[in-house]
């Protein structure tokens, strides 16, 4: 079965193609399903696709038209995660399940505004002194202080907070981007290298690679996940980080590794810390799930705080998207642990130089909310409960999924799913299996076998377990 | 066991480096001294003190110790200096943020109402798409191109929500650089941040003549000459209205000439529209240049900011659009804009865009907005008049005509750098070093004070 790909309107194309695949006779070819699901148009699109004739327009279309530069622009690659989300939205199958994007859903499958967040928003609205003025380039100072305290712990415990250069950012993405530019500019290059190397775990959140490539860093991978055992590839990790040139940048997920949910133990963290110190590596923590991973914000910060206590001058990217449910408000921070206030001022000034020509100053709504919550002891306490509630529901879905898989007769060892931490289950399913799940069962997940547990609830968990069993029965979920 | 060697190594080096740590902290920044004492370390590359210092287990010397303080931002750094000043007479006419006549920030009433509605409706905070909220984008595009714009009807305009004007400029700059553009032309002078934005996007920033300092008017014939000299296909940045900082805009006829030359040279007109509605008080009038160029067949790009006109500064609301030849091309351009957005900030902030959507989707709220925006523009015009009156009343022999003939938020006063510094140090009046005064910061309470101060630093000449 061949699909003609029309270049416009990817989502509709994908949906149409999937429906044809589902209703067609016989098994559609895998290639066709995959192509249809992503509607990726090869660069030589003009030769292989149909396109509607250009309508009469008022544009002057001579060969000297300024649009001639536009004429050579191919279709850009759709984002792997957000593209699937869009396919989900346009799918009309009533059984459809979205376990793709890492956004929390309540037990009815609905987005959930944390009660503490809702109260904070009302308070902001009623505050007569509130306005819409520009934040400083580095953002709302009070918010940054509270955010840093949340991550690093109360002042004086582990580190003197006044020595930490912190800046508000566009959530975690923005923090990684700014951090990447900073490191790319200022970390000394190991001899023989023309770019600063950054080591990123294999696998990792897909956008990490794009971000750090944009900042002109030399993106390298270190082994992280053992696909043969569905556990941490600890020896591979140690070997690769030992072999990295001294003074490389090492990206670590602070907790609830995305996508595997597989974190080092505290003991392993201790040893990793010693190794990185001995190599003079620059540590860059990405913290997107603090509070959300175990339900306990202090516990989720243990690795970060340990490293700081051992003297690492870490860089930290912090996101409040998941733990505060503030996804779309783009609320985060970037921070750098410095030796003294002068150094901190210099570092901060350099961070600002990166932010100003990118977006001038950060958006205030999300940071206003976080500041309001964390300034008020009652709201803070409510917040910790809310966060714990989310973590707890996700943990229960994790257990239920594994039980359901057993109940429908799956003989696989799903122990890794129970052991994993955070929002995702890294199932071990192959890309082919995922494609079938999407094509035949309208279950939308990323092709690395990652399921967002937040998308599961009592209403769909059995269906999902049945489907997973169907595609994995008799096949390996390890490689 | 894997780790033993590393741990042993670590212990050995720690002992050797005990002395080194003291040296390092005493000689912070003195690289050569530290490098010479690292000979007992493991054979790792010599990179400077960071190398040796990082081998300590505790009190790891920082990677950043050698940093210089970067210069403060010329505009926003000014704000920070103003905040530190404790003179009761201080005046902030630096940043282009509107103030009411009491000198306070102003949130448009229609904005407050829209916000109340959004929160009452319990809208969630879910991720927007990479390109942002489609309703917002559609309304934003209609706002600048006009409801009756053929290009919009023909669905050949690619549009994305952006982080206000700055974000849109950066995304388009990066996209241009990806597709073969090596340089961009900006007017001289221009908003200061244009230069680092495009430089960081990977473009060489070139300037075209724009303003004649001697006559305080548009340097039109040189502008046209410079355009004629631009390499074919170059991107030219144009301020859609209320040129920042000069307030000097081309006339309709001059825009027509600019359009003709741009077609001749196959230039890519890129409009920065930060003051639509705010410049003249009339949103349609302020978009006249943009609309003319679309009519004339240019495939332009436009960045819109909703910071000033909607007073949404800190919410970072904007849009970037590209007019393509036909819908398919627009789709492809859109996909490439998204490629640059995702590794920058993934998707844009929701709140401010929701406010704009609530307003522009509702005819009554839109009317309220138009009135309130016009109210801001009118107050500024009033202050222009009063400032000029006051200066002339003090007997200044200099012409202050430009204060009332310039358009938009700023008066490009003509003050020299030294005079601006004197204004700051002697009179606690803060404006940028190019003599650009934000009229939005002028009130009936301070206009006389400002006039006297200007009169003083210019010596009445």
Automatic annotation (TrEMBL), chain A:
Keywords annotated in UniProt: Aminotransferase, Pyridoxal phosphate, Signal, Transferase
Q: What is the annotated signal peptide range for this record?
A: 1-31
Q: Which InterPro entries match?
A: Aminotransferase_I/II_large (IPR004839), Asp_trans (IPR000796), PyrdxlP-dep_Trfase (IPR015424), PyrdxlP-dep_Trfase_major (IPR015421), PyrdxlP-dep_Trfase_small (IPR015422)
Q: Which residues form the Aminotransferase class I/classII large domain?
A: 95-468
Q: Name one Pfam family in it.
A: Aminotran_1_2
Q: Name one molecular function that GO assigns to this entry.
A: L-aspartate:2-oxoglutarate aminotransferase activity
Xref: Gene3D superfamilies? Aspartate Aminotransferase, domain 1 (3.90.1150.10), Type I PLP-dependent aspartate aminotransferase-like (Major domain) (3.40.640.10)
Names of the cofactor(s): pyridoxal 5'-phosphate
Kindly give the CDD domains that the UniProt entry links to this protein.
AAT_like
From the UniProt entry, list the residue stretches annotated as the region Disordered. Answer: 47-66
Similarity annotation: Belongs to the class-I pyridoxal-phosphate-dependent aminotransferase family.
Subunit composition? Homodimer.
Name of protein: Aminotransferase class I/classII large domain-containing protein
Automatic annotation (TrEMBL), chain B:
Q: Which cofactor does it need?
A: pyridoxal 5'-phosphate
Alphabetized, the UniProt keywords read: Aminotransferase, Pyridoxal phosphate, Transferase
Similarity comment:
Belongs to the class-I pyridoxal-phosphate-dependent aminotransferase family.
Instruction: List GO molecular-function terms, semicolon-separated.
Output: L-aspartate:2-oxoglutarate aminotransferase activity
Q: What is the official name of this protein in its record?
A: Aspartate aminotransferase
Which SUPFAM superfamilies does the record cross-reference, listed alphabetically?
A: PLP-dependent transferases
Carries keyword Transferase? yes
Residue ranges occupied by any Aminotransferase class I/classII large domain in the UniProt entry: 89-454
Q: Which NCBIfam families match?
A: PRK09257.1
Q: Does the keyword Transmembrane apply?
A: no
Q: What is its EC number?
A: 2.6.1.1
